[in-house]
Amino acid sequence: MASTPIRFGTDGWRGRIAENYTFDAVRRCAHGFAKYLLEVEGDTRPVVIGYDKRFASEHFAAAAAEVLAAHGLHVLLTDTATPTPTISYAVVAQHAAGAVNITASHNPAGDNGFKVRDRHGGAIDPEGLKRIEAAIPDEADDVPRIRLQDGLSSGAIEHFDPKPAYIEQINRLVDLEALRSAGLTVLVDSMWGNGAGWFPTLLNGGSTRVIEIHNQRNPIFPEMSRPEPIPPNVDVGLAATVQHGADVLLVTDGDADRMGLGDEHGRFVDQLRVFGLLAYYMLEVRGERGPIVKTLSTTSMLNKLGKAYGVPVYETGVGFKYVAPKMLEVNALIGGEESGGYAFHGHVPERDGILAGLYLLDMMVRLKRKPSQLVDLLFEKVGAHFYKRIDTPLPPGGRELYEPRIQASKPETIGGLKVDGLQTTDGYKFNLEDGGWLLIRFSGTEPLVRVYCETTHEDRVDAILQDGLRIVGIA
Fold it and tell me: How many Cα atoms sit within 13 Å of 9 on the Cβ side?
């Protein structure tokens, strides 16, 4: 029986461990990526391989290393589970051709994944992903490989520590000494993932105190449904923030490329507000200028900030495979998406939950305000905005059932607000008269349909979402 075809979604390929995510499947992906790298970059530069703390990730990473080395590529294999942004920066620091990252990021415990990165450390654009897919063989029988131990003995595979170079880079971007001496109490929830230990390493040594929870390896992710930094997964961390009297809660997802924020009262600050805060920090607090790149699923507050500070705002499809290339094209100041991933100028065009958290702490210190006060400050600039999302699992064939209903719908109002237009760049985005929007989109990584909205009317959020579910055909 032929193997199931492998298709890359918004951020690489993910599958169910032992069902379709197998060692043979990883070897097939590694073969396709090796062919792509050899065609695009040649064999003179190394390739970085890293992994997360999910079940058997280190063994899947070794399988990928064996294949890439068999193609004549020099493999730099991380010596421990490593945050995605650290892996991405290692590509730049090591002058590598690209990277493989064995991670399923924020997916449920039973999943794992295969992320690929280009020589800039960023996501590969859609055309490049198609070329990788085309080079993936149907079977693993003919995929060349060498034994890991043989590769290590010959030097074809080399264990390395990417941490020092990344920390040097962070020191160039953030005044860590100012944060260490700020006297903050920072609660960090690393969601059993790769972010564990990083904030204490960076911030200990002064009057600031860092308290970590969920900082051990536990691939079943207790106390949360998945390592995604949104409610209800962050509820334990929010409660711990109040319990410890912390000034702020920082949450990193399973591979630490995304971050979530809780305020000093134990209230979640949604990802759209965080994106607005980070853009305001770069423009107002740091005084920097440059374009903003945003996915269509994130906040219109960025458009208002762009207008206020005279910088262009570019909108892309969902996923860093669109954001990263656009950031490089326009030399962006900041880029990000609705899921809590943010990238910054002077770094790599890749989401970095660690750096985003440090920037938010720096904003708190420089402005002498706590998170709730920072949100108030943002709203003074752009007005209050309210956001919510509903994810609904799809049965087999669900997209084929529901998508025609969405395409056939012609709503004049949604949630009592006039519909001003429809965008179909990536999903179905209905623009509303208040500058808000409703987006209906099928996930590129999971069998889900997502219904999101943002509005300036707090009392209309639920009505907008319910109208969105009706448009899909889900009561």
Answer: 15
* CATH architecture type of domain 174-382: 3-Layer(aba) Sandwich (3.40)
Look at residues 282, 298, 303, 275 and name the one whose alpha carbon lies nearest to residue 382: 303
Torsion angle of the four alpha carbons 29, 31, 37, 42, in this order, in degrees rounded to the nearest 10: 170
Domain boundaries, the chain: 13-163, 174-382, 386-472
Q: Which residue has the tokens 């390929």?
A: 13
**What is the per-residue pLDDT across 82-140, written as a single tens digit (0 to 9) for each?**
999 999 999 999 999 999 999 999 999 999 999 999 999 999 999 999 999 999 999 99
Query: What distance in Å separates the CA atoms of residue 202 and residue 188, rounded to the nearest whole number?
Result: 13
Report how far residue 74's alpha carbon sits from residue 3's, in angstroms, rounded to the nearest whole number.
Answer: 28
What are the pLDDT digits (tens) for 387-431? 999 999 998 888 999 999 999 999 999 999 999 999 998 899 999
Residue 109 CA to residue 56 CA, distance in Å, equals: 12
Q: Which helix (H) or strand (E) holds 87?
A: helix 84-93
Cα–Cα distance between 353 and 361 in angstroms, integer? Answer: 12
Q: Which strands form 448-455's sheet, in the order they lie side by side?
A: 386-393, 448-455, 437-442, 428-432, 417-423, 413-414
DSSP state of 449: E
Residues of the chain above pLDDT 90, percent:
94
Q: How far apart are CA 101 and CA 444, in angstroms?
A: 18
First to last CA, the chain: 40
Q: How far apart are CA 50 and CA 89, in angstroms?
A: 12
Closest C-alpha among 158, 434, 419, 446 to residue 300: 434
CA distances from 85 to 80, 235, 252 (A): 14, 25, 12
CATH number for domain 13-163, candidates 3.40.50.300, 3.20.20.60, 3.20.20.70, 3.40.120.10: 3.40.120.10
